[in-house]
Write a structure and sequence with these properties.
By secondary structure, this protein is an all-alpha fold. 62% of the residues lie in helices and 1% in strands. Helix 3 packs across helix 4 and helix 5 packs parallel to helix 8.
Length: 290
């Protein structure tokens, strides 16, 4: 719940930053006019343009960004290394040597894995410059592509009593494959969609060392529905995966149950969501424990 609230707060701040930047530069498209060459430079340019005269404040902004990024990345690397050691290294070590891995050796392995993950992250950061999307969009795209089908299959088992393991597994595999394909095609044909109209009529080229361009207004491009399908917004990846998973999961479950292709045990009611659990505080603890 705390993570969800933090994500909502972060996305809200990001949206407000975008609105402020658009309100500031909608009559001077600094990206199209060549003042900046990448979308990631928009926010630092806005900070320097608005707060550059206040000595120390732009440096405080940069320090805040770096500190937040480093703390989050270091925590994620350590957590990923610890999970890898717990779920893979220790079980495999026990199977091979028939005794538990010592904590000191496990700590050394976790540190080595964290180093390898850090090197891989640096490599991915270098490759991100070749993608047309922003870093936040790429990160949320990955979460939506892989997390959407998982969310869908979990809620499928929670809310639909007729769903069985065959339908859940089939829908999970198909929805993940379809989601990844749409995301891959979206990256390959990464053309900006849904952009607001911008103009360069108010650009003051005497303030920036760029070649002056003709003052023009860029309207929103019209595209047909076929090309727009693969340019589905990354914010809809999870929703699309849920719809595909629910449809395929219930369809396959119904066919398997009707044709009796696989012997399916009925779902125990204790694994389903009980709506009265939120309103009735007198429910016994045994009723809510799985």
């Amino acid at each position: 719940m705390i993570n969800l609230l933090g994500s909502v707060f972060l996305l809200t701040l990001t949206c407000f930053c975008g609105l402020v930047a658009y309100a500031k530069y909608y009559e001077c498209d600094i990206l199209g006019s060549g003042i900046i060459n990448k979308g990631e430079k928009l926010l630092p340019f806005l900070v320097m343009d608005v707060l550059g005269k206040l000595h120390g404040l732009p440096g405080l902004f940069v320090a805040t960004i770096y500190s937040a990024a480093l703390s989050t990345i270091s925590g994620g690397m350590s957590s990923l290394a610890a999970v890898f050691v717990t779920d893979f290294v220790k079980p495999l070590y026990f199977l091979k040597y028939n005794h538990e891995l010592k904590e000191k050796k496990a700590a050394y392995i976790a540190k080595g894995l964290a180093l390898l993950i850090g090197i891989g992250s640096i490599g991915m950061a270098y490759l991100c410059q070749f993608f047309g999307n922003t870093l936040l969009q790429l990160a949320l795209s990955i979460f939506g592509l892989l997390g959407g089908p998982l969310l869908a299959v979990i809620t499928l088992g929670m809310f639909f009593k007729k769903a069985n393991w065959v339908g859940a597994l089939t829908s999970l595999i198909i929805s993940t494959a379809v989601n990844i394909w749409i995301g891959f095609k979206g990256v390959v044909s990464s053309k900006p969609t849904g952009l607001k109209p911008v103009s360069t009529v108010a650009c003051d080229y005497t303030l920036f060392p760029v070649t002056q361009m003709s003052s023009t207004t860029t309207p929103v491009p019209e595209q047909d529905l076929g090309t727009n399908f693969y340019q589905l917004s990354y914010l809809y990846y999870s929703l699309f995966a849920c719809l595909v998973t629910y449809f395929l999961g219930m369809t396959v479950s119904f066919v398997v149950e009707k044709k009796k292709l696989v012997k399916i045990k009925p779902t125990d009611a204790k694994y389903l969501v009980k709506w009265n659990i939120w309103t009735n505080n007198s429910i016994a603890q045994a009723d809510v424990n799985l």
